[in-house]
Design a protein that fits this description.
The protein has 296 residues and is an alpha/beta fold. It has helices at 24-36, 56-70, 85-94, 115-128, 139-142, 148-157, 171-180, 195-201, 215-226, 230-239, 241-249, 254-262, 279-295; strands at residues 7-11, 41-44, 76-79, 102-106, 133-137, 161-166, 186-189, 205-208. The chain is built from 13 helices and 8 strands. Helix 3 (85-94) links the parallel strand 3 and strand 4.
């Protein structure tokens, strides 16, 4: 299982047409772009995929299309999280997870549960899920932090909780998880800028936004970092640093869709309450992209 999800995962966007319906033709191009770039697995219906704006029918259609398009070439991870435990459990039990290799479940937001509540929440999800579960800790969005002790207890008590996407930005917490975790429990960087320190600390790779646009570069960088070739990995990370910064300057996935539309992979449409990046930011992104091409 560690081998299956080690390396570069991509939190893939959901492309839209001008009428804001899902652009399945673009989704097909993106899938081929990612697989050709050597990514290790694909994550659907995450924050970057604007999952909160999709209806149940749209989610089902997107999953079915992507499973068919991927055709078993790489694993697929499905975002299934929220702040109503019983609703998530029901959704898991009612969903057709054929072709889905794992689920990624974010810490409950808005409710601000204590650590005991977090433990019980994820334990219920674990018991309901027929596929492995990856925890997702992103306090900047949820106002809830899965502490290392809670993460470790879940890893020890729930056999199918196999890893955590860690976005707290707290490297002391990261080190505690890596020190105390079961041997086969994976710790993935959730921020593109954290790839090198996570790899140096013993992490398993990254769940990346940047890799939507640059799968080959990101995949190679992560592989080099996991091999301990930090000089080579650092060169790539520094080359991509400006682009990574611009990616989130006006919110995600606005930045990555701006890059990908410039590359001809999709159109630059988002669903409210999200909007495309400003014209000035679009100009900066295009300039940074052109500089990358000149370097590469």
């Amino acid at each position: 299982m560690m081998k299956k999800f080690k390396g570069t995962g991509v939190a893939v966007i959901t492309p839209f047409k001008s009428d804001l319906s899902i652009d399945f033709a673009s989704m097909g191009r993106i899938v081929e772009h990612l697989i050709a770039g050597g990514v290790n697995y694909i994550i659907l219906l995450g924050t970057t995929g604007e999952a909160s704006t999709l209806s149940s029918d749209e989610k089902g259609a997107l999953i079915s299309f992507t499973v068919e398009a991927v055709n078993g070439r790489v694993p697929i991870v499905l975002g299934m999280g929220g702040n109503n435990t019983s609703e998530i459990v029901s959704s898991i039990r009612e969903s057709d997870l054929t072709g889905v290799d794992a689920i990624l479940s974010v810490a409950p937001y808005y409710n601000k549960p204590c650590q005991k509540g977090l433990y019980q929440h994820f334990r219920q999800i674990s018991m309901a899920s027929p596929v492995p579960v990856i925890l997702y800790n992103v306090p900047s969005r949820t106002c809830t932090n899965i502490l290392p002790e809670t993460c470790i207890k879940l890893a020890q008590d729930c056999e199918n909780i196999i890893g955590i996407k860690e976005c707290s930005g707290n490297f002391e917490s990261l080190m505690k998880i890596i020190r105390d975790k079961p041997e086969d429990f994976m710790v993935m960087a959730g921020n593109d800028v954290d790839i090198l320190p996570f790899a140096a600390a013993g992490g398993s790779g990254v769940i990346s936004v940047l890799a939507n646009a640059f799968p080959a570069e990101c995949s190679e960088m992560v592989q080099q970092a996991l091999k301990g070739n930090f000089k080579t990995a650092r060169e790539t990370q520094l080359q991509l640093l400006e682009m990574t910064e611009l990616l989130f300057a006006e919110g995600n996935p606005g930045g990555i869709k701006a890059i990908m539309s410039n590359m001809g992979l999709c159109q630059n449409y988002l669903r409210l309450p999200l909007v495309p990046v400003s014209r000035s930011m679009q100009v900066r992104i295009v300039k940074a992209f052109e500089n990358l091409k000149l370097k590469g």
